[in-house]
Amino acid sequence: MLATSLVALFAALPAQAQENWDAVVAAAKKEGSIVVYHAQLGAAHWKDVVRAFESKYGIKVQEYDARASELTERIRVEQTSKRYVADVEFHGKASIAQQQIENDFIADIGNIPNAKNLREDYPADKYSVPAWSQIVCMLSNTNLIKPEDEPKNWTDLLDPKYKGKLLADDMRAVGSGQTMFGVTFKKYGAEFHKKLNTQDLVFNRDLQVNSRRIARGENAIFIHQIIAFASELKGLPVKVLLPTDGCPYTGIRGAVLKGAPHPNAARVFINHFLELDSQVRYANAWMGTVVKGVAEKLTDADAKRYADVKLMGEIDYTEREAMLKAAVEIYK
After folding, report:
1. What share of the chain is helix, strand, coil (3-state, %, to 5)?
2. N vs C: which end of the chain shows fewer Cβ within 10 Å?
3. What average pLDDT does the chain have?
4. Strands of 9-77, DSSP E
5. Please, what are the domains in the chain?
6. pLDDT for position 18
7. What is the pLDDT of residues 62-92, one digit of tens each?
8. Which DSSP letter does residue 221 get?
9. DSSP 8-class letter at 186
10. 200, 163 in Cβ contact below 8 A?
11. From CA 201, how far away is CA 114, in angstroms rounded?
């Protein structure tokens, strides 16, 4: 009798979960809009996923698209002043952990049905869900750097032949530059960066502009290239360089902010990002994906190549402040 009751109970759970999610979707549609903070910098694949969401649910998406460090500061101001604007953010794993642990800015995310499809190496937690990963490598101008002269790993950048030819993001602020700094600092130590700093680096914080500067031949190699941002440069004299020692990356996660004016729409938007179609769009734009079944859907050779990139590691929340301080000290 007890066994029969338990079977009936567990059989009812999926239906109950779907019924509860249907209520969340209905509430989201009544909210009618959502405010999303992210750092996709106008990327076409982001816009495609947003348009698909608006078409499917009839919910209008308003955005603040800026550098990761700018997102962090804007969220801090809103949350501490209790003037809540943002509903959901897509931010680095370490940044969200810091917001949750030190500042209590992050709400419990609740049930996200598509989280069941996450890969084992990208688990969800109580406060955030993986959405994609931003992988950092290098980008060269093929007219200026011939195949035999390409850096094969990160330490090759110390070769004197690259002096004055390297373009870099600011490694002293949250972003792809800091990601590369922290991961290579852990692997190769401070001495690597002290030597790299003698290579007369050119610094610029606009990642999209940096990629185009390489394409125009203004600089020879961008050392903080997010792979996905190079997908729009097909046909131009550029080449994505994948270091043999691996690529640093930032796991981007979706989180609902405390006081979110549209909390149901926030959850539905995050769930939408874990749809297989959304993830395939990201993979075809050379972005790292987090759900099962994506590789089988890819037909583009470059997308397949970048879906299997060797990863070097990412920065943990507990390491963030020390890495920022180290970067400030070295790259004064």
Report:
1. 50, 20, 30
2. N
3. 93
4. 33-38, 60-65
5. 20-131+250-301 (3.40.190.10), 134-249+310-330 (3.40.190.10)
6. 60
7. 999 998 889 999 999 999 999 999 999 999 9
8. E
9. H
10. yes
11. 43
